[in-house]
Amino acid sequence: QKKSKDNLRCPVVCVLGHVDTGKTKILDKIRRTNVQDGEAGGITQQIGASFFPIDAITEKTRPVMELHKVEYNVPGLLIIDTPGHESFTNLRTRGSSLCDLAVLVVDIMHGLEPQTIESIGLLKKRRAPFVIALNKIDRLYGWEPHPELPVQQALEMQADSVKAEFQQRYDFAVRQLQEQGLNACVFYENQDVRTFLNVVPTSAISGDGMMDLLFLLSTLPAKMLIDKIMYHENLECTVLEVKAIEGLGTTMDVIVVNGKLKEKQKIVVCGLEGPIVTQIRSLLTPQPMKEMRVKTPYIHHQEIKGAIGVKICANGIERALAGSNLYVVGEDDDEEELKDEVMKDLGGILKKVKKNEDGVYVQASTLGSLEALLEFLERPGEDRDGNPNPPIPVSGIGIGPVSKYDVMRCGVMLEREREWEAYACILAFDVPVLPDAERSAKEIGIPIYTAEIIYHLFDAFTKRVADIKA
Ligand code: GTP
Ligand code: MG
Ligand code: NA
């Protein structure tokens, strides 16, 4: 089958930006969901993907389609939400490495912030086109919401003082972007999308600009990336997260950009102890406009086609690594070759998991969150006076619920010198502790600190050190 303009796949769109600029809230507003309210501390700590079918997009964007007299030719959008918190550089990198196109969310009240600039760097490296959502315009003093109108018209309806404040903050953001070597222009005045980045004023609270953002994401790929989004059959599939789900066992959330996956197919992914060869037991997706991270009734598929986010159930994938490529072993394929190929990815990850002799034991739900935790413990931010906090060395790692096995492995620290006493503990991020692990931890005297927010683990450990010294 030849690639053609008549057979496009969904563009993969990644949402990037500084913490709390409103990335998740924008997606919530479009999906009519409430993912952000359910996040611990309101902070995104995982990557999530949602599928937006073109019918739903068309319905939500009719006024702006009529204004610009444009029709869509993509079958929908696959949108990936990423965390903005500084410790999740790895997830931002993974998200941006998958995307065809990105939305960089900037808080209009704050302008560019550190992770905005980091994200610009990632996107430049990828040469991925992106649009800027200048979000929180409802916070302009006196803003009157008009989510039913294209944002250009909503702006025209505002009082002069609101228009003036918008212009001043918009000009400021544009100047800041210029300092990053980027030309930007509000999208409805942009005559040259190859020279000027499109800026869309948005509010995830009032809904202003939501249709304009969807409109841009659905029309830009055909203008800028048509060759890239022509569907082809060569499988391009990446593991986003590996996690245990009640009633399903261990599952892998994957993004299939091109090609197909079918039930019963034999697949290869990268594992901590070596390549994992297994069979697809089932292929599940959330309902359209829902997110994979949230519990919704799943749809079962016998076959799926990129671009799509899908949950794979299979045996023996407990130790599979997020970030790994996934290959299908077809009749004509050399399984050994694919096993070698898939393990190439591990190099960089293992470097991070480099073990110290003396250090705490850390445990996380997924490799993605483990990477984030390790990265944070290496550079745990600054104290109140702006001095860098000391790193916390890590001597052992685990993924998934804390088990007795993890406690035993951590227990080794108890046999080392007194000065390392503080390290004999487990920092468990976003994972439950199994009852027998809890019992044996009490017996041998290993505290297990659990938290849903990474830096709470740092606080717990810091307090432990202080208590031991006192
Ligand atoms: P991280 O994923 O943690 O990086 O944050 P985020 O970029 O996903 O931001 P999130 O959606 O968590 O929103 C952060 C806060 O800003 C929440 O309190 C939101 O209610 C608020 N917020 C988001 N968008 C808007 C907006 O357009 N207007 C106003 N007034 N508040 C907003
Ligand atoms: Mg978020
Ligand atoms: Na947030």
From TrEMBL:
Keyword Transmembrane: no
Keywords: Chloroplast, Cytoplasm, GTP-binding, Hydrolase, Initiation factor, Metal-binding, Nucleotide-binding, Plastid, Protein biosynthesis, RNA-binding, tRNA-binding
Domain of life: Eukaryota
Name the record gives this protein: Eukaryotic translation initiation factor 5B
Location within or outside the cell: Cytoplasm; Plastid, Chloroplast
Signal peptide boundaries: none
Entry keyword annotation includes Cell wall biogenesis/degradation: no
Whole-protein residues included: 406 to 875 of 1032
Protein family (similarity comment): Belongs to the TRAFAC class translation factor GTPase superfamily. Classic translation factor GTPase family. IF-2 subfamily.
Tr-type G domain boundaries: 8-225
Example of a GO MF term: GTP binding
GO cellular component: chloroplast; mitochondrion
